[in-house]
Amino acid sequence: MQTKYMTIVFDDGPLPFMCEMVDLFNQYDFKAGFAVMGDRINDDTEYMLKHAIDNGFQLVGHSHSHPRLETVTHEQVIKEMTEPIADVKNRTGYDMKNWARLPNLCRDEQVLQICKELKLILLGHGILCGHDWTPDANAETIAKETLETACDGAVACMHVREQTYKALVTILPELKKRGFNLVTPDELFKIKGKTDIPFGVHIHNVNDI
Ligand SMILES: [Zn+2]
């Protein structure tokens, strides 16, 4: 069976269940990414970032305060997307570099242009994983849709939430059984030989670039 590679990036942390997710992934020798928000990083949550970093998981930016970027000024977009990089570096020494996922899966052209100028690599949402952030989603629906849509090269979008964690208990062993290897975004690009990554473009599946 040929190995299929995929990355899941969990948005909106650091939040409860982030450490549990890391520990669960470790059980299967899988890795993932966490898209973190600047205004959630403080003395009480710092340990969650460190737990992820210490276990080889990747952190990427997810804005400071999660605004709809198409509604704020040019300067605010820059501030929102660059501040968390400095916050994480100051607290942990970890450099998120230019990796990011935009809040609210924003698609505005002007925002993308600014991201291009900032040389940001934008992780898209090739798989929406049962819209795990919506009130109607539960562990069963999240697991079902994720397993139906999982495919090689995909950048999947999930969130740090209890219902998502519960779904992962089903999802991870099943993906392992199907020959998937879940890796960090950085590893996925490297494994697929993608060294020339376009900036300011939503990348939903690494095989498409
Ligand atoms: Zn978000």
Any overview of this molecule?
The protein is an alpha/beta fold and 209 residues long. The protein has seven helices and eight strands, in the order βαβαβαβαβαβαβαβ. It has a single domain, classed as TIM Barrel. The two termini are 25 Å apart.
In summary, what is this structure?
By secondary structure, this protein is an alpha/beta fold. It has 7 helices and 8 strands. It has one domain: TIM Barrel (Alpha-Beta Barrel).
Proportion of residues in helical segments? 25-40%
Content-based structural category = alpha/beta
CA gyration radius, whole angstroms: 16 Å
Number of helices: 7
Mean pLDDT: 96
Low-confidence stretches: none
Instruction: Give the ligands present.
Output: zinc ion
Largest sheet: 5 strands, parallel
Strand content: 15-25%
Going by CATH, the architecture would be: Alpha-Beta Barrel
Overall 3D form = globular
Count of strand segments: 8
Could you tell me how far the N terminus lies from the C terminus, measured between alpha carbons in angstroms?
Answer: 25 Å
Kindly report the name of the CATH homologous superfamily: Glycoside hydrolase/deacetylase
N-to-C SSE string, H for helix and E for strand: EHEHEHEHEHEHEHE
- Indicate the CATH class: Alpha Beta
**Would you tell me which CATH topology applies?**
TIM Barrel
Number of domains: 1
